[in-house]
Amino acid sequence: MFHTFRVPGPPLSRYISELWIASSPGLPFCRERLLPDGRITLVIPLTANPATLYEGPYGAQKQHFNGPFVCGIQTRDITIDTATQKHVMGASFLPGGSLPFLGGSARVLHNETLDLDAFWGARSHQLHEQLLSASDDAQRFSLLESALLQQLIASPHPAVTEAVARLSLNPAQRISPLANELGLGQRRFQQIFTETVGVPPKVFARIQRFSNLLYRTTNLQEADWSLLALDNGYYDQAHLIREFRALSGMTPEAYLRSERRMINHMPILPPVGCAAAKQAEAKSDTREGTIEATKSSGSKAA
C-alpha cells in the first residue's frame, strides 16, 4: 500500500493530525481487522467499490458506504474490507478535533460509523463528486482542505484540549485529580470531555494505554508482558491480557505472531470462495508450477 500524507496548515492543524491518500493495487486478502486507536477519522472512497464493514472477521455484512463516512472512536476491533483501499483518502482528527467540523456531540460516534451526510448534508455528496473528478492527489488535498475550512464552526473547550494532552502522555493518571487541576467539577468535566472527544476520559485513557502498548511492541518478536504491563500502566500481566483481548479480539501473543501492514491493521486470512483467496491460490499454483518446471529443466540438462 502506498500512502501520501499532508499536514494541514493552521487553523486546521489545531484539529487534524494529517490528511492522507492511500493506494493499493491489490491485496491478497478480502478483510482486515482494525484495532482501536482513539481517533475519529473521515474516510472518502475514491473507487466505485462501496466500503463495507462486517460482523466480525468472517461475519455477514454490517454496513456499507458508497460515499464519505466518519468512523468514530472504537472500544473493540472492527472488520473492514480491502476493496475500497485500492484508492481512498481521509482526514485523521486529533482527539476532540472532530467536533468543530461535525457539530453536535462526538458521543454519537462512539463505536459507530456514520455517513458524512448525516453531518454535512448535501455538501458531503458535492465534495465526493469533486474528489472523484479531481485530476491528481494535490488537487484532492486542496479540495478537502477547502471543504473542512468551510465546515469549521467551533473550538473545543480548552480544558478538554489540556486533558487530552495529559492523558495521552500518562494514561494511568487518575481522572478526579485531573478535573480538579483543570478547575472543573467531576460531572462537568465528564460531560464536556465525552461530548468533545466521543468517549469518557477513563475510556479514552484506556485506549491510549493500549495504543502505547502497540507502539512498544512494533518491532518485537517476543515480549516480557509482565514488564510491559508495569511500564504501560497496567496492574499486572493478567490485567494487560484481559484489556488486550477486550480491545483487539486477540491475545497479545497472537498479535506478535500476526502479519501487520500497519500498527493497527491486521490482515484476515481469506475465507474459502473469496475472490482474494482464489487469486492467492492461483498465484501459489503458478509459483509451484514454475518451480517444478525449473527443476525438470535442470534435471534434463544434467
Quick structural overview:
This protein has 302 residues and is of the alpha+beta class.
Q: From the coordinates shown, what is the CATH architecture of the largest domain?
A: Sandwich
Q: Structural class, from helix and strand content? A: alpha+beta
Please count the helical segments: 12
* H and E order: EEEEEEEEEHEHHHHHHHHHHEH
Percentage of residues in strands? 15-25%
- Portion of residues in helices? 40-55%
Shape: globular
- Most strands sheet: 6 strands, antiparallel
Average pLDDT score: 88
Count of individual domains: 2
Do you know the CATH topology of the largest domain?
Jelly Rolls
Radius of gyration: 22 Å
Please provide the count of β strands.
Answer: 11
Describe this structure in words.
- This protein is α+β, with helices and mostly antiparallel strands.
- The chain has two domains: 2-151, Jelly Rolls; 158-257, Arc Repressor Mutant, subunit A (Orthogonal Bundle), CATH 1.10.10.
- The chain has twelve helices and eleven strands.
- It has helices at 99-102, 117-120, 122-133, 137-151, 158-169, 175-181, 186-197, 201-216, 225-231, 237-248, 252-257, 275-301; strands at 2-6, 16-23, 31-34, 41-45, 51-54, 61-65, 69-71, 78-81, 87-93, 113-115, 265-268.
- The strands form two sheets. The protein has a six-stranded antiparallel sheet.
- The two termini are 43 Å apart.
